[in-house]
Design a protein that fits this description.
16 helices, 5 strands, 42% helix
Amino acid sequence: MAQQHESLPLRSHPMDPLASPAHGWFPAPPPPIYCCTLTPALVAKAREELQEKPEWRLRDVQALRDMILKEQPNLRTRLDDAFLLRFLRARKFDYDRALELLLNYHAGRKAWPEVFQDLKPSTVKHVLDLGFLSVLPHPDPSGRYILCLQPGKWKPNDYPFVDNVRALYLTLEKLIQPEDTQVNGIVILVDYTGVGMSQASNPGPFLAKKVVSILQDGFPIRIKAVNIINEPRIFKGIFAIIKPFLKEKMAERYVLHGSDVRSLHRNIPPTVLPGQYGGSAAHLDMSAWSRMLLDCEEEFIVEFCQPDPLEGVVLPEDMLLEGEAGGGPEEDPFRAVRSQLYYCY
């Protein structure tokens, strides 16, 4: 077992799962001392898809830990096995790329303080209560949990868009805890019912780039598919904002279904979908995921409400989200696509 490094100021480990609230449909947080929870089938899947070799797993974790201590000795980050494994799996056990992802993970927090400052479920309860996002209680046949977003429920006059990003990030942090998710990835389902010009024109390309950058390059999760349903004509304009920032592989994972639920069912089986999407699962209880996150308030306080982990750390110049100073309030980066949105609308 890899040794703990007491000389480095570390983030606290996750709370003991035995002390955490019980939610039968979602796995508990991992134990403080790593113990593999993957089934034999998932061990084989991780070996094939992620180049994870069980017999070398802790050796690989130690190698990444040693790189962090050598190259970024001032970085205040967790160094426990379970945490570092997320980054190794997300980058198929490439040490250099895993370290880059870890630095991006922390750099994103520094570059976007309005998202990450005082980040805990109680500060986004209004977003959770609205039903802007939820997680379906049953994973798909590939073991992937389905994150459901309903942006049409958000009205720009109610609260700033960045609150939606805060709720999304907390959800991803919870989803990535189980080892099953680290191997299987997740699926996103976005229902654009009710989305109009007010929602589409609010974030703009600058905000869209930040969100996409964090999801693609700054968070250790595998997004395997993004299913869009009930998208209006205006979605062409919305996607025109997002697509330039998407890597080719990610762009190919976007599937547009319109109002055709049969098309959706070819990607997500009806057995895990609620009736509103032509499925046979129970009605989606939007409050269930809200309760899940709110019950984990202390866990998120330990994780996020701490001193800046990058204080005293020198990052490469091309690190994620650098150069944000450009695009001040006097600029309108959305002007180039605004006319296209109105045309689609």
